[in-house]
Write a structure and sequence with these properties.
74% of the residues lie in helices and 6% in strands.
């Protein structure tokens, strides 16, 4: 009888330990997921501020201020900044500080070289799979746009929507991923250049030419107008003062 009681107590103790260990595993697993989600949110928020030029090229980045603003410890901030450093959007100098990466002439020429290599071809491939109704709506949007009553932020979102639609119509996952990496680097250049006098109006005309070429399905013309658009964007970026470093 006593042996049976000891066995029951032993089995109950094992069950309790197993239950506790299982609960700890669940809690730890949930903590890891929550931690990873927080790190990703912090990373995305900081990255968006950089590529939207809310945090300007060359500006100082304070881990302490970001941690206070986001209501986190400095650990997820530091991890996000290290990740952005690998993406060439943040520069970290020991004992000097952390800064938003400046835009160099080399950056401009390399990014636009990539765009010239892939984007005209992207537009050509995409034109075979596009919805004419969507193209017509984009054409109407850019043709009838009143630049006096639209904010720069709203206009730039339409610009992104058009370029995103074109690349998504390739139905090529890897090409889309490569394109987005390039455009993340290019976005802050284009935002700064978009504030130059008459650049938005010129860009609208370029968009209209692209859309008309896509509707015509003239593949040579599509590549031609897309190349011209990219070169015009590059030339505008090269006119920026105060943000470009040798």
């Amino acid at each position: 009888m006593e042996k049976s009681l000891r066995l029951v107590r032993s089995e109950k103790g094992t069950e309790n330990r197993t239950g506790s260990e299982g609960m700890r595993e669940k809690v730890n697993g949930a903590s890891i997921v929550k931690k990873e989600a927080l790190q990703e949110q912090v990373y995305r928020k900081i990255k968006e501020r950089i590529i939207s030029c809310e945090m300007l090229p060359g500006s100082v980045v304070s881990e302490e201020l970001l941690a206070s603003e986001f209501g986190t410890s400095r650990t997820p901030i530091r991890e996000a900044l290290l990740r952005l450093q690998r993406e060439h959007l943040i520069d970290i100098y020991p004992r000097q500080g952390t800064f938003v990466s400046p835009i160099s002439l080399q950056d401009i020429y390399e990014i636009y070289q990539i765009r010239l290599l892939i984007e005209p071809r992207i537009a050509r491939i995409a034109s075979r799979r596009m919805d004419r109704g969507v193209l017509d709506r984009f054409l109407h949007l850019f043709s009838s746009m009143d630049m006096r009553s639209i904010s720069f932020k709203e206009w730039f979102q339409y610009d992104r929507d058009l370029h995103d639609y074109i690349v998504e119509c390739t139905h090529n996952r890897h090409l889309i991923e490569i394109y987005r990496v390039v455009m993340d680097q290019n976005q802050r250049m284009r935002i700064l250049a978009g504030r130059l006098p008459k650049r938005i109006e010129s860009t609208n005309e370029e968009h209209i030419a692209i859309l008309k070429a896509l509707l015509s399905q003239d593949e040579e013309r599509i590549e031609q107008v897309m190349s011209a658009h990219i070169l015009a964007s590059r030339d505008a970026v090269l006119k920026l003062e105060g943000y470009i470093h040798e």
